[in-house]
Amino acid sequence: MQRSHSSAGISRRTVIKxxxxxxxxxxxxxxxxxxxGARADTPVEKIFRGGPVVTVEEGQPLAEAVAVxxxxxxxxxxxxxxxxxAAPGTEIVELNGATxxxxxxxxxxxxxxxxxxxxxxNVSGPPVGPVTSIEDIVTTIRTFMDERRPAPGEWVIGYGxxxxxxxxxxxxxxxxxxxxxxxxxxxxxxxxxxxCVLNSAGFALNGIDENTPTPEGGVILRKEGSNEPAGLxxxxxxxxxxxxxxxxxxxxxxGLLGAAQEIYTSRxxxxxxxxxxxxxxxxxxxxxxxxxxxxxxxxxxPIIFDVPALVREYAPxxxxxxxxxxxxxxxxxxxxxxxxxxAGIKMVLxxxxxxxxxxxxEPLLTGGPEGEEDHVGAPVVPPEMVTxxxxxxxxxxxxxxxxxxxxxxxxxxIDALRAAxxxxxxxxxxxxxxxxxxxxxxxxxxxxxxxxxxxFTGHTFFWGDVHVENTGPERAxxxxxxxxxxxRGLRCSNHSDFSVTPIDPFLMMQTAILRRSRSGxxxxxxxxxxxxxxxxxxxxxxxxQIFEExxxxxxxxxxxxxxxxVDRNPLEVDPEEMLELQxxxxxxxxxxxxxxxx
Amino acid sequence: MTLPLTVIGxxxxxxxxxxxxxxxxEDHGRRFGVIVNDFGAVNVDASLIANHDGDTISxxxxxxxxxxxxxxxxxxxxxxxxxxxFDHIIIEASGVxxxxxxxxxxxxxxxxxxxxxxxxxxxxxxxxxxxxxAGRSVLxxxxxxxxxVLNKVDLPSPARLNETRALIARHAPDVPVLETEQARxxxxxxxxxxxxxxxxxxxxxxxxxxxHAAEYVAELLERGPMSQAxxxxxxxxxxxxxxxAKGHVALSDAPEVRHLYQKVGRRWTLVADGxxxxxxxxxxxxxxxxxxDLPNHRHAGQNMWRVSGAPFASDVDRDHxxxxxxxxx
Lengths: 598, 329
Known about the structure:
heterodimer; A: about 600 residues; alpha/beta; 6-stranded mixed beta sheet; 5-stranded mixed beta sheet; about 30% helix; B: about 325 residues; 11-stranded mixed beta sheet; 6-stranded antiparallel beta sheet; 10 helices; globular
């Protein structure tokens, strides 16, 4: 065990008063580096025993007991050996046959959606939510309102509305909602996030009625035989409603952070990602961190579009071009301050495959979103900008996180890194978030350039059938090809893209293992991985991807005591039963941050 | 109240930012609400900023500029809430965005589309159109334009300039092209001749008024009621060269309905717009076109006008208030 002092301990307990302006992009740097290890005389605070310890360590994959103190893992080994370390006051945590795992690491998601979602009602169908009928929707909203008691006139917002899961086989209408909820405007956001259903109070607040024309490119569903809006609004008709949606203020959001983080801790996730951080989000996170609101680590990726504004604000004396960074910029990345870390810069290169806005080299078989022929999608930013920005980030030593779903978008980031002279020897670990339609030759390029994919295997379940239809069975079979990536020696993470899909490590594991669509089609049987590989992509390899494998991702001495107790061992359970696994308790740096109610 | 919307598109280096900078800073007497991708790129001189409040910069010339990095929908919603403070909304479409789609998204806010203006780089366009990643987007932008501004025409060789013109003629036939440098263009051609009395209220004045200080001609076209087919033929014959046209139309098949005709570049609409009230039904349309004594290049029948780059603010002749100031064309 290393004897170095844990600097993370200092940053955790000391609320640093330094002004933000003096910390971001400036010579003083942001936060403190974490190093592995704990003091030799650290008292043993907790010992976990009585169930399998899945360490995810190469040499010692299974252990019997773990000793924890000072927020770190102190020792891992046979029960007798570990129990010998117990001192008066050491708490013995009996696993009672449950399994201890390293805390899960969110490979990619959007933490800032969490405070919003916890103030919304979940009207999704299984497995995301409880709804299979219109009656369920009404009951679910009723229960939510009985709990939250919104004031009359206050918006009630739901998410995950999906008419295809309703046994009623029709769209929900305002007439279904009005008798039950006359006093509150209600907005149920469509599962695509491209539309919503409103009740009459909601229509009134938005000034939409029978005289409202349907905008081009939009849908306003009307009641039969009338021009009166029925409830559903989609696309361009939804945009103004979305634009006018009530936004919670900072104080409200801070108050929701406890519940927001429980979304993560209740699923055993101890490191969350804020994977597209806009400037106001970053300001909020800095405040949340410095006021001690973060119970789990949050890894933030400032979004490239806001980088010029961030530099202007935090490095006002810097005189560079639009996408240039001060020489000291790297010191703002890779270090934690009160559980907040900036990991790298997020670039967005294309859209989504299910929305047909990803960027491919070969056309879709089903045309574009509006039936366009020969549709390959489009990049989100010009390639010249990608090349220039990547060259700058490489020059300044900042990790790149590039959102790329289609293979043409993936070519753009490969080209840009190659143009910047990057090789695997640089050890940059540039991440291609999603990498869903990556080609085999592109995985070779990943290996050559030291790049690493963060896959989204949940797509095989949620949109697998759509991908087969749009891209054909062959391309769809290679979606998020985790086996092919590991064969090339790449290390991968897997992600939920929360809140696009729920944060559920066991759903991520299951989809990596089964790759089975809603209709039962297996996409690329040869790309299925075993349970340990699926687990690695949520723990040690996800930690490696963000340069935290020394302190996280496995149960080993000197690492942070980020741990989760699960009722059954995910390495032994039948993958078909994976979604039944229950998190019993979650620990962040040795402290319990979630416990399942009895 | 609804505001006319102009979407400004174009690939990297085409001059969108230069044009937006002019709009935000010059003394043109129009109040634009402008949604841009990034404040930093616009880089307005501090002395011209009246107020800077988070996502919004208010300029001393009455315009405001909103950053849309938080999503265009939110930015549009912010401007629409204050619509009485503006005459016109401009949205900058990002480098690879399809301006037609941006315009359509804005349609949800009930903003009538005035026009899609796409800028192109006279030197770089052929390379950009052939780019493996961006080519399709560059061509889609040209196809979606109502008016193309071919900028930086002073830079390419004559052969290269002709290559660029031919490319535009091939992919965006029928779209009028204004050729310029440093994005210098008369406002009237882009946005109409400014605030003023409604066309219907405009009774006096000469048949045609030439504003000699500017590079365009504003003309009034008057006719009695006619059939729609006859009107469309008239529009083709009399307004084919017009960059913009706007006015009321009296159709003999529907004598009680007043129709509104609007044209920007190749886009035109004819829609019912209330009744005539006490006025006799009469077609009155103001057209704006480039002065015909300016160089006009024709490729495959397409009109490509060289505007000289006269000072941008001079399109409203302050000493000679005339037709151009009194219509809302």
